Amino acid sequence: QVQLVESGGGLVQAGGSLRLSCAASGSIFSISAMGWYRQAPGKQRELVASIGSGGSPKYADSVKGRFTISRDNAKNTVYLQMNSLKPEDTAVYYCNADLLTVAARRDYWGQGTQVTVSS
Known about the structure:
By secondary structure, the protein is an all-beta fold. 0% of the residues lie in helices and 63% in strands. The protein has no helices and eleven strands. The strands form two sheets. Strands 2, 4, 5, 6, 9, 10 and 11 form a seven-stranded mixed beta sheet that branches. The protein has a four-stranded antiparallel beta sheet with strand order 1-3-8-7, with no helix packed on it. It is globular, with a radius of gyration of 14 Å.
């Protein structure tokens, strides 16, 4: 069984930083893209950043220049370094991974971690 476990959320003042981590575990053959999504109250879930197995990060326009996504393939872990945080970054952040197991290839999601930015 595959699990994605997130950590690193919390409460921070505007202008501050947080680092999110997401570790995938279980019977994993390989992981393709990994990414972070977020969902604010009353809004749809949106892609924040993604990264392929070989690198090549992509970012939402709203976070370019402030957030950095990275991954450690040896640890099946993806990170999101968030700097210069704004109140509008407040949301539940979800980790996502496109991975291959013995059963099939599909998307997996973490349980979500709350990020709250106070003004």
